[in-house]
Design brief:
The complex is a heterotrimer of chains A (about 325), B (about 375) and C (about 350).
Chain A: H1 7-11, H2 15-49, H3 66-102, H4 105-118, H5 123-149, H6 166-190, H7 194-202, H8 207-236, H9 239-244, H10 264-272, H11 277-313
Chain B: H1 2-23, E1 47-53, H2 58-71, E2 75-80, H3 84-92, E3 98-101, H4 111-118, E4 125-138, E5 145-148, H5 150-157, H6 167-172, E6 184-188, H7 193-206, E7 224-226, H8 228-238, E8 242-247, E9 255-261, E10 264-266, H9 270-278, E11 308-315, E12 318-319, H10 321-335, H11 337-347, H12 354-364, E13 368-369
Parallel strand pairs in B: 1-2, 1-3, 5-9, 6-7, 6-8, 12-13
Antiparallel strand pairs in B: 3-11, 4-8, 4-9, 4-11, 9-10
Chain C: H1 2-11, H2 23-40, H3 45-67, H4 70-104, H5 110-114, H6 129-160, H7 165-177, H8 182-197, H9 204-228, H10 232-240, H11 245-256, H12 258-273, H13 277-282, H14 301-310, H15 314-345
Classes of the chains: A mainly alpha (about 325), B alpha/beta (about 375), C mainly alpha (about 350).
Family (chain B): Belongs to the PstS family.
GO molecular function (chain B): phosphate ion binding
Pfam family, one (chain B): PBP_like_2
Chain lengths: ~325, ~375, ~350
């Protein structure tokens, strides 16, 4: 995409060339700092967590090995993140489109502003609100879901009247990641070249066709980035999940019962404080697993995105 | 045009606000150093003291800090509510000068030995500082209190008693208008001293068949979990038919269970809690500076309330010269009648029994400078 | 001549048949009426609203498909869906904001803003001044660390590292970084500073470092996307004028997408300003005012809120909501300032 500047200029020992070298140096250095920080976090997790892989069996209760301990947690983490993404992505893209292409400007600006505000609400408040207010309402919806859709494994129940389920936790996460996905999508949508859009309209496309043909292809990479950022937050969120979820180390697809798998991050936050040194090592080791897991998910997402991009190019 | 003028006003407005914020200290804080240092402080103590640990003590620590800092304006005490485990760890690695812990420090994972090493080889001081009744709270409209024995409580919390009008409950509460709805027992989702003490009580007095621990046994099916005391009481407040255990001071308007002690049913009270501690023996084989108790949770003593949480303070016998005085003074204040009264007023804890208090003060007397 | 015109007019239809402009409104009113009827006949309010939405989403496209064309129907469906998502999203948003304002409004007072919690017990008036200062300092420092690193890393990725292996690895690592749980970031920062400065170190700067770990990926990612959207024509035009690359980036590329970058930075700050767990671990907790980032414990607003919440007293709870309201107000002000900055420095565009 970007061309290098003319070679002659780089060769000349002018102040500009020096400026270029310095600028490039700072840019590369910043990248290096990020790598260093990540390597540091990884080293920290590995060193502190390694002893946790093989401690007294009792600490892995109810399982007897580290894998047995971390299994339900991975499951819970993925489940909560999937629920969050399912709810948040269509909503966020809809709102972003609304702001960038549908709403009259007088409405769009305050809406964008309000959504940004949602990002600022501390996770403790999300937890408080999710557990005390949202959960109550989700609780009654859950009873309804169980009555009419109880044959699905997701709504097998028995439904929890309090609504402190993984469904609620997923919803809270969805609301938490909504502003991130919306804000980035909105910015990239707004950057679609005006000419492309007008060309599409001039060819007789409806507004939706114009969006499909010019906006979405142009914003693909940005939308994927936005979703990945949201996913990262959903995977790593601690307090809000801890405060909403009624957790238990089990693996179940049942979304509406009072027994839900915890997420790795919330499990660390909840149990780290009172834990003995060995147990703390176990918890940090689960952090390492989450790290590796985020790694894998990102790898997969890149691969999928890369493949579909190639297909489109063809 | 209009919006521009508003915009023009916003920037200086914010700048002025920022200036205002940074220009002065907090409205309620005195600034002791400006009026000639510590000359007016009666005790002449000064310095920063860092401690931390059990979250259960947090409110009491706030009361103690306030009382001590008012008497010694040049001292700042900080207490990080990071949890007992982290508190012990930070005490051992010298991050904290004192620590609060819900379960007494032992040598199971070598923590006591490590702590002893941290204290230069001398025995670690461990004194009870915060004794609090744990209440069993429930939400049933129109019912403020219920009489339950330890066996029935065990049945409710391990899932073998599932309805509010179960015979076992009705038998002890003939006058209560009990609904036939399901009981939903609520436990802490986090590892906590409250859970540990509550399950220890169930084991000692009610035939609880699981290993008492800070984490709720995962073999029990049914029930729900919530994070922290606030989470638990919030969950019970919002939902009818829910029952949970929580620090008595957080019970609020919820119904409270009177537990069976001997032939009586006792509601949670600070006097009852203090009494239970007073009749409990010290753990055998501990160092003379270690006041860990073997709480007699199955007691039948009349007036005692056996569902209690005892939180301890950890300290060393010797400190560097500039710290010893302050640590000693602060811990003595905590144990003293004034300190215990202050914690009672703020956190609803049970003031220590006079005998226990005297023993603890005698141990703290031994804190010296290196 | 006249016959020719008469025969031609019906042949060439220049305008497709279209629904009248009041059609969506009519359908909206109609479906609202159906929802209201359901509600009157005993269905719950939520079900009524839900039914109204479904009726609207079905009737309008079908009508359009009958009168207009299939393409127009799809367009109408898309438009209605976009409006629907917007309305749905407003529900939690307004609900949350109303909750915080309702619960926090009565607590916030001049005293609440200018008092600290030092020596405050019982019913005495306390405040969050210490936490307010802590939040501004710790978050400000975190932004000071992360924004340059993040923006320069994004510049490297887009302007220098295009197609290089190092850049691909870096992009990937930044994605991984977004998934670091906040408490792990705190524990990492703590062990880092304990290694350097000894075990008893607890200071605000440590919190800034932990928050930077969480903030950098958001800054990099959003900036990267914005840089990518700057048309190459601009860069090439600048090179053609003999402007060196670094000046092109600084004077042409960055200003072009400044609005987006500022949004990203504000978003990143919003993301971290509400963090609790890492700060409690590495910055500790205190009741007193501390304005020195490098010495002594520092409390931030989220820690204050969480502490008050865990007290589980009525006063604690109202202080927690009050703190939340103040925190949201801070971010609101931040947002306004950022937008003004973006407006001032952004080049004039057609939009």
């Amino acid at each position: 995409m970007t061309q290098s500047p003319p070679e002659t200029e780089r060769a000349a020992k002018t102040p500009q060339a020096l400026g270029d070298r310095v600028f490039r140096g700072i840019a590369v250095g910043s990248g290096g700092v990020i790598m260093l920080a990540l390597a540091g976090v990884f080293a920290f997790l590995a060193i502190e967590g390694y002893p946790g892989l093989s401690v007294d069996e009792g600490l892995y209760s109810p399982a007897t090995s580290f894998l047995g301990y971390v299994g339900p947690l991975i499951f819970g983490t993925v489940l909560a993140a999937i629920i969050a993404i399912i709810f948040a992505v269509p909503l966020a893209i809809g709102i972003a489109l609304f702001i960038s292409h549908y709403a009259p400007r007088r409405i769009a600006t305050p809406v964008a502003y309000l959504i940004d505000l949602l990002a600022a609400v501390p996770s403790v408040v999300y937890g408080l609100w999710g557990g005390r207010e949202l959960a109550q309402h989700v609780g009654s919806i859950q009873v309804w879901l169980h009555d009419y859709l109880g044959f699905l494994p997701f709504f097998a129940g028995p439904p929890s009247a309090s609504g402190r389920t993984i469904l609620t936790a997923g919803l809270v996460l969805a609301i938490m990641i909504l502003p991130i996905i919306t804000a980035i999508s909105r910015e990239v949508f707004a950057q679609t070249p005006r000419l492309h859009e007008e060309a599409a309209l001039a060819l007789g496309a409806t507004r939706w066709e114009m969006i499909r043909m010019t906006v979405f292809p142009y914003a693909r990479s940005g939308m994927i980035s936005a979703v990945m950022l949201g996913l990262g937050r959903a995977l790593g969120e601690t307090m809000a999940v801890a405060m909403v979820l009624s957790a238990k180390p089990i693996v179940t697809l049942n979304l509406i019962s009072g027994e839900n798998p915890a997420t790795i991050a919330s499990n660390i936050a909840v149990n780290y404080k009172e834990a003995s040194p060995d147990k703390q090592a176990v918890l940090i080791a689960t952090g390492l697993v989450l790290f590796a897991f985020t790694f894998a998910i990102n790898f997969l997402a890149r691969w999928v995105a890369g493949r579909s991009q190639r297909r489109m190019a063809r | 045009m209009n919006s521009t003028s508003i915009r023009r006003a916003v920037v200086p407005g914010i700048a002025a606000l920022a200036l205002l914020l940074s220009a002065c200290g907090a409205g309620n804080e005195e600034t002791p150093s400006t009026d000639g240092g510590s000359s007016d402080a009666a005790t002449g103590l000064s310095g920063d003291l860092a401690g931390g640990g059990a979250t259960s003590q947090e409110k009491a620590q706030a009361a103690w800090r306030a009382g001590f800092q008012t008497a010694n304006p040049d001292v700042t005490i900080n207490y990080d509510p990071v949890g007992s485990g982290t508190g012990r760890e930070n005490f051992i690695n010298e991050a904290y000068l004192f620590a609060g812990t819900d379960s007494p420090i032992t040598d199971e994972e070598g923590e006591l030995t490590a702590a002893k090493e941290r204290c230069g080889g001398s025995d670690v001081i461990q004194v009870p500082a915060y004794v609090s009744p744990i209440a069993v709270v429930f939400n049933l409209p129109g019912i403020d209190s219920l009489n339950l024995s330890a066996e029935v409580l065990t049945g409710i919390f391990d899932g073998s008693i599932t309805a509010w009008d179960d015979q076992a409950i009705v038998a002890d509460n003939p006058d209560a208008d009990l609904p036939s709805s399901d009981i939903v027992p609520v436990h802490r989702s986090d590892d906590s001293g409250t859970t540990e003490n509550f399950t220890k009580y169930l084991e000692a007095a009610g035939g609880w068949s699981f290993e008492p621990d800070g984490e709720w046994p995962s073999d029990i099916s049914g029930g729900e979990a919530a994070e922290g005391t606030s989470g638990v009481t919030g969950l019970v407040t919002d939902n009818e038919g829910y029952i949970a255990y929580a620090d008595a001071s957080a019970a609020g308007d919820l119904g409270v269970v009177s537990v069976k002690v001997g032939s009586d049913f006792n509601a949670p009270s600070t006097d009852g809690a203090a009494k239970t501690l007073a009749i409990s023996p010290l753990t055998e084989g501990n160092a003379p500076t270690d006041m860990a108790f073997d709480i007699d949770r199955a007691t039948t003593e009349s007036g005692a309330y056996p569902v209690i949480l005892v939180s301890y303070l950890l300290a060393c016998q010797t400190y560097p010269a500039d710290q010893a005085e302050v640590v000693k003074a602060y811990l003595e204040y905590v144990i003293s009648p004034e300190g215990q009264e202050a914690a009672n007023a703020e956190a609803g804890s049970a003031p220590l029994d006079a005998g226990v208090q005297a023993d603890a003060l005698a141990i703290l007397e031994g804190i010296t400078a290196q | 001549m006249s016959t020719l015109e008469a025969t031609r007019t019906p042949d060439v239809v220049l305008v497709e048949p279209r629904l009248p402009s009041w059609a969506p409104l009519l359908v909206a009113v109609g479906s609202a009426g159906i929802g209201a009827l359901l509600w009157i006949f005993g269905a719950s309010l939520a079900l009524g609203v839900f039914a109204a939405f479904v009726v609207f989403l079905i009737v309008l496209p079908v009508w359009s498909a009958l009168i207009e064309s299939r393409r127009a129907a799809v367009d109408r469906l898309a438009t209605s869906l976009v409006w629907t998502t917007f309305l749905i999203a407003l529900v939690p948003l307004i609900w949350l904001v109303v909750t915080v304002v309702r619960e926090g409004m009565s607590t916030v007072s001049p005293d609440f803003l200018t008092y600290s919690m030092r020596n405050v017990i019982g019913d005495a008036q306390g405040g969050l001044y210490h936490a307010l200062l802590g939040t501004l300092l710790v978050t400000g420092m975190a932004a000071l660390i992360s924004v340059p690193i993040g923006i320069f890393a994004a510049i490297y990725l887009i302007e220098y590292g295009k197609g290089k292996r190092l850049a691909r690895i870096l992009t990937f690592l930044v994605d991984v970084m977004t998934g670091i749980p906040s408490i792990v970031a705190g524990l990492f920062a703590l062990s880092l500073f304990v290694l350097i400065l000894g075990p008893s170190i607890r200071f605000g700067f440590g919190g800034s470092v932990a928050l930077s770990l969480l903030m950098i990926p958001t800054v990099v990612r959003s900036t990267e996307e914005m840089l990518r959207l700057v048309p190459d024509d601009l860069r090439e035009a600048s090179y053609a004028l003999g402007v060196p690359k670094w000046r092109t980036i600084a004077k042409v590329v960055l200003p072009t997408c400044l609005g987006g970058i500022v949004t990203g930075v504000v978003l990143a700050i919003s993301r971290i300003i509400g963090e609790t767990a890492p700060l409690l671990v590495v910055a500790g907790a205190t009741d007193s005012v501390n304005t020195n980032l490098f010495d002594g414990r520092m409390t931030t607003l989220p820690v204050f809120i969480y502490q008050q919440y865990t007290y589980s007293t009525p006063k604690g709870l109202s202080y927690a909501w009050g703190g939340a309201l103040v925190l949201i107000l801070i971010v609101m002000i931040l947002n306004i300032v950022a937008r003004i900055i973006g407006k001032i420095f952004a080049p004039k565009t057609g939009r």
